[in-house]
Amino acid sequence: MSKLKTLVIEGAGQIAPAKVDDYLAIGGYNGLKKATGMKPEDIIGEVKKSGLLGRGGAAYPAGKKWDHLLHIPEFPKYIVCNADEGEPGTFKDRLLMAKLPLRVIEGMTIAGYVFGAKAGYIYVRGEYRKIQRVLQEAILHARGAGFLGKNILGRGFDFDIYIISGAGAYVCGENSALLNSTEGKVGRPRIKPPHLAEVGLFLKPTLVNNVESFASIPTIVENGGEKYFSYGSPDSGGVKLVCLSGHVKRRGVFEVPFGPTLRDIIFDPELGAGIPDGKRLKFFHLGGQSGPIGGPGQLDTPYDYKALTKAGLSVGSGAVVVMNEDVSILEYLKGVTEFFLHESCGKCVPCREGNKQIYKILCRLAVPGQSQPGDLGILRRLVDTMISASFCGLGQSAAVALNTAWRHFKEEFEANAVEGQAGAEAA
User: What's the CATH fold of domain 20-230?
Assistant: First the structure.
């Protein structure tokens, strides 16, 4: 039985991305047409039934977020799509925006109808210059065909979408930092509460969802939330776009229903098809650089939110980076830490200084004879401090890979440690 289920990316690569007629030919805008004949409460009810969790990585229940915003009386309200796909190993939003931009636009337009919003913004990472042009073209065509702008579908409903380009800052993937950047401010996270549903863009009530989340909405509305939920596992309804990269034979974006195991995802011929060159799996990194690292002993964990969390893993953004037996875990973690060192906004000390010190210690541990007394103990304390004391999710998650790798590869951390410190500091 196939491990793949094509719902969200149906038609990708088969149509001209920005052409409305092509999109209509594959069932495009059926969701919006149905939605404009429904009450906002009923649409949110279908989103709740779908079990859709935020597909950007936070996994917050979309129906709960939508319901919260609906009951906030203040206007205007804004719809914002987080397309700042800066998580290494993640490229599924890029596929949606490049191949099916009108599906993302349709999902945002349904949200605009639900909340009576007049304007929506797609915040696209700066590196996606070509994709920004595709999105802009799709918006122009949707506007020209009566699916955006004034009096959409003749229902007296006005809504339009605008493109905002990021400048390449990873921290702007955090929703409040993204809104600050959209407003022309420094892209740094806000203190919460108040929540963005209450005080968001321009200090007005705002819905912020990921590209994949918005792209799922038309299918949920058209076919019903229960139908969408039925495709997944009892603990995680629906489907997920998985980004496979690293040492697998087949790399790319795969749409899978929740439920198959990590072994299936990495080794099934329809998906990763195994490790090339006869090598063995050493570890896999889930959800991007900010996600946990797992080992071969966890391969039979089902790929759904509950099972992965129970195993100390996570779905995150959907990235699955696979590494073979030749990879040094310390060298890999140096790359991860160097990324966060570069991307830290510098606002808080635990993240700004913690990444620097972790990188220095990893560099010493990676070379025989370079380690200093106490390095392992300092490393563990730095990890604990960053996770518990960093201001935002970037600093809190920057050491997650290191922390989880420690559980699987403690002997590699200890191999070059100063003699006598390993046993004392590793406890």
Answer: Rossmann fold (3.40.50)
